[in-house]
Amino acid sequence: MELAAIKAAVVDALEDVKAKDIVVLDVGHLTPLWDALIVASGDSNRQVKALANNVAVKMKEQGVPVLSVEGEQYGEWVLVDLGNVVVHVMQPAVRQYYSLEQLWGGQKPTPMPRQGE
């Protein structure tokens, strides 16, 4: 499966379980380890686990090998390693603290107010 198709499939899998603030960063020019980093947020331990699980299941269904899944025990930050794409699903406080987007050359996420607030 091509990189663009993998990234799109991961985003679809995250959207299926209502992930928030999905960011796709192309980092191949920064590291030889992987080509893309995808970061998303879930509101609770349960949702973070469900998001990561859905990504793993959907990728396996499409023939993309899931090399490892780390952090499922606690559900604050779960990493899904797809080889050339790494997916980080985090609770908002953890995501803000580690600021992976900014670390990897993207923009620091800015919270968007929900409608009606």
Automatic annotation (TrEMBL):
GO cellular component: cytoplasm
Alphabetical keyword list: Cytoplasm, Repressor, Translation regulation
Subcellular location: Cytoplasm
Example GO BP: cytosolic ribosome assembly
KW Nucleus (keyword) present: no
Domain of life: Bacteria
InterPro entries membership: Iojap/RsfS/C7orf30, NT_sf
Molecular-function annotations in GO: ribosomal large subunit binding
Pfam entry (one): RsfS
Entry keyword Cytoplasm: yes
NCBIfam families linked: rsfS_iojap_ybeB
Family: Belongs to the Iojap/RsfS family.
Subunit structure, interactors included: Interacts with ribosomal protein uL14 (rplN).
Function summary: Functions as a ribosomal silencing factor. Interacts with ribosomal protein uL14 (rplN), blocking formation of intersubunit bridge B8. Prevents association of the 30S and 50S ribosomal subunits and the formation of functional ribosomes, thus repressing translation.
Protein name, entry field: Ribosomal silencing factor RsfS
Species per Swiss-Prot/TrEMBL record: Leeia aquatica
Phylogenetic placement of the source organism: Bacteria, Pseudomonadati, Pseudomonadota, Betaproteobacteria, Neisseriales
